[in-house]
UniProtKB/TrEMBL annotation, chain A:
Residues 7-88 form the KaiB domain. This is KaiB domain-containing protein. Residues 93-104 have a biased composition (Basic and acidic residues). The lineage of its organism: Bacteria, Bacillati, Actinomycetota, Actinomycetes, Kitasatosporales. It comes from Streptomyces abyssalis. Signal peptide: none annotated. InterPro entries: KaiB-like, KaiB_domain, Thioredoxin-like_sf. CDD domains: KaiB_like.
């Protein structure tokens, strides 16, 4: 039981799709040492899954577990904001450093 | 120099050939099935292409989009996908049930599919980094493939704009979406918001550059009356009627473009049967009664005998076993019944025998377009052989002169198709729009088959009535202006009026103008 499960909706094998997946994996890897589940859905191949969750934009990541479900649209290129938007625990090292730098 | 000329000629010849080829490859159309719209669009929307339909809030965009799919299913058995950004599918199903569109049933039969892109409440949404609408496109394609759709409607892009503020992305994505729709080979309608009625085509001024075909729906107030029009702004070089056309959104017929919805039906051969006008002398003046399919315009100032003539026309109809439909404006039912009883005409009895339907109304309760739909529906339901509208001038108050002409054109098409003898009355000069009316009246008379004028004139200190048949298409008629007397029996037409001096007409607005076409 990991406690965190995500589904990432992407459209085809584009640069944007792989950037979103890499950004998400890096972030979750850093913040969720207990592990997590990530399921990548290509909406071109499985449009019915996009229909089910009424996804419009790609990439979109949905935090399935824990509830409530949370969604973030985009290639997830701003890790601290993504962490915040997906309700991930802890703080990123860079964010901490920035804060410390700001406080000094 | 000669070479340059030759080069120019060659270029011209090539251009000529290309033009000819382009014309030969005439653009294929998808008939929408929307009442009157295909006549306006000369066949329908360019097939396999997207068309942008823009309008302000409440201009009828959603109705157009829904009907585009619904009529496609009803009339052409063409399945369609409805992409909704604003209203939830449940709302659309419910709102259009009254137009007789069984959307839920069509969904079950695989003829209609929703792609629900409406914003759901309370959903957390963050945008971080670049994105596109790949999922939306994939869902539309999926739905279209699943039911074999040939039509797609999207309502409305404005909602997408409100949600995702980046217009650069929107412009690119609309382009991508329209390319995807074109690749699917579906004919599509995409609606978009406008800010003002005569102010740019669409809200963000980008949509129309992406789409080849643009239609504008307007909803404006003219003389404190709501007036809806539809205009085809561009159509990928395809022929279409230009200008703004009136339309109405009827509670049961939906979107109806007037008068086009009623024109262009197969012509019915002219009737040679004559029917009795109810006023014996008048039948003689018209060469033996009105033709059965005639539209008769009777004009005259207030009190001269128009209503009496129309009552006699109804009485004669009922006597011949004809079903009569009568619209009386500006009088209550009680007033009409009392007035007719005064002439010994029992309208109630005619109604009980199923020979009369009397509709008394103040026209102000509806718009001119709606009135036309009302009249037409009564004609379709009651199937009369005779129709009376007393008076058309009452309708002038609720519409522009142009709208009134459109109504008479449309009405003419409806009644001629069914060979209904129609008597329209009008007041020569309107109390309200005195300036415009004479020319409208002149145009009106060109749309009718028989034009009769009744007037007052003055002799030796007495005011008298006169009648003249000014026009009687395809038939000889009496050219005389005859004296009219009215007594308890009704109207009697007498000898030609003999005057020593030019007639000094009364109640004409312009003294001394006599009987001319200008003041019908």
């Amino acid at each position: 039981m990991t406690g965190y499960a995500f589904r990432l909706y992407v459209a085809g094998e584009s640069e944007r799709s792989s950037a979103a997946e890499a950004n998400l994996r890096a972030l979750a890897g850093a913040l969720l040492p207990g592990g997590y589940e990530l399921d990548v859905v290509d909406v071109m191949a499985q449009p019915e899954l996009a229909e089910e969750q009424r996804i419009l934009a790609t990439p979109t990541v949905v935090r399935l577990v824990p509830l409530p479900q949370l969604r973030v649209i985009g290639d997830l290129s701003d890790p601290p904001r993504v962490a915040n938007a997906l309700g991930l625990p802890g703080e990123l090292q860079e964010a901490r450093k920035e804060k410390e730098a700001g406080g000094a | 120099m000669r070479e340059a000329n030759a080069e120019r000629r060659r270029a011209e010849a090539e251009a000529e050939t290309r033009r000819a080829e382009a014309e030969a490859e005439s653009i294929e159309r998808t008939a929408t099935g929307i009442n009157g719209f295909d006549q306006m669009a000369m066949g329908g929307l360019p097939a396999g292409r997207p068309t942008l339909v823009t309008g302000t809030t409440g201009s009828g965009k959603t109705v157009f989009a829904v009907e585009f799919l619904a009529r496609g299913i009803e009339k052409y058995d063409q399945p369609g996908v409805f992409v909704t950004f604003e209203e939830a599918p449940a709302e659309i199903r419910r709102n259009f049930a009254s137009l007789g569109f069984p959307i839920e049933q069509w969904e079950a039969e695989g003829k209609w599919a929703f792609v629900d892109a409406a914003d759901s409440e309370g959903e957390e949404r963050f945008v971080i980094g670049a994105y596109d609408f790949g999922a939306m496109t994939a869902r539309i394609e999926h739905a279209a493939r699943r039911i074999g759709a040939t039509r797609v409607a999207m309502d409305s892009l404005g909602a997408v704009f409100a949600r995702f503020a980046d217009t650069g992305i929107i412009r690119r994505e609309i382009h991508r979406l329209t390319s995807a729709l074109t690749a699917l080979d579906v004919t599509s309608v995409i609606t978009a918001e406008r800010n003002g009625e005569y102010d740019g085509v669409s809200r963000y001024d980008v949509e129309e550059f992406v789409v080849d075909n643009v239609i504008i729906l307007r909803n404006v107030l003219v003389q404190e009356r709501r007036r809806r029009t539809v205009e085809i702004v561009k159509f990928r070089g395809a022929v279409h009627r230009t200008g703004e056309w009136l339309f109405t959104i009827d509670p049961s017929d939906g979107f109806v473009v007037i008068p086009l919805a009623f024109l262009g039906s197969a012509p019915v051969p002219s009737s040679t049967t004559r029917v009795c006008s109810g006023t014996p002398g008048l039948d003689e003046m018209c060469g033996g009664g009105f033709y059965q399919d005639a539209v008769v315009l009777l004009s005259g100032p207030s009190g001269v005998g128009k209503t009496l003539s129309s009552l006699k026309f109804l009485e004669a109809g009922a006597a011949a076993g004809d079903r009569c439909l009568a619209f009386a404006f500006d009088e209550t039912r009680a007033q009409v019944l009392r007035g007719s009883a005064g002439w010994g005409i029992d309208l109630k009895d005619m109604e009980e025998r199923g020979l009369l339907r009397l509709v008394c109304d103040y026209p102000e309760v509806a718009s001119l377009e709606d009135y036309f739909i009302r009249i037409r529906r009564a004609v379709v339901e009651f199937e009369p052989q005779r129709l009376v509208i007393d008076t058309l001038s009452a309708l002038e108050r609720i519409g522009t002169p142009r709208a009134l002409l459109d109504l008479v054109i449309a009405l003419g098409a409806v009644v001629r198709q069914r060979r209904i003898t129609t008597l329209l009355t009008s007041v020569p000069i309107s109390r309200v729009a005195a300036v415009q009316t004479p020319s409208v009246a002149r145009e009106l008379s060109s749309l009718t088959d028989v034009t009769i004028a009744m007037r007052y004139y003055q002799t030796a200190g007495a005011v008298q009535r006169a009648i003249a048949v000014l026009q009687n298409r395809a038939s000889a008629h009496d050219a005389a202006m005859r004296n009219v007397t009215i007594d308890a029996e009704g109207m009697h037409i007498g000898d030609p009026v003999v005057l020593l001096d030019s007639p000094d007409t009364v109640g004409m607005g312009r003294p001394g103008s006599g009987f001319t076409g200008d003041d019908l």
